[in-house]
Amino acid sequence: MENGTYLYLMLFENIGYIRYAFFGLGFILYCAIVFFNALIILAIFLERTLHQPMYILISCLSVNSVFGTAAFFPRLLIDLLSDTHSVSRAACILQAFVIFSYASNENIILMLMAFDRYVAISKPLQYNNIMTPRILSVLISKSWIYPMLSIGIAGILNARLTMCGNKLWKVY
To answer: Transmembrane segments in this chain: where (predicted)?
Structure first.
């Protein structure tokens, strides 16, 4: 192992047996997040009356939540149970990419929800002409593409920098 390619997480070093309790709570929380978001997505998908722009955006928030949670919790749970708390630099950059793109996408989807309510309130007679399924699908696809590109470019530029140390004292 080259010294600069691995990061060592110092936070988990001396927590003793309490890590099993933290693991149990984290695992329950992770399962609950995935279950309830899947329930929301399934309910909106199966119920025909919920195929409206606001509910579709709510299901996009749930998909995004599962996306962000899948980047954070599995690695955290592995680190809680592991005796060696190291992560490769590439895995760290990938996890940062997913978490930052998740946060950016969350803000964009909330902005789209605000835009949907604005159009519904200010132009109620033109709402169905403005918020068509085609426009909504374009807006949703752009809400996923823009964060991926902007955070991806920043991640590529960040990966080229040299590290000043390889011990991390905080997770985030």
So the answer is: 20-46, 53-73, 93-115, 135-157
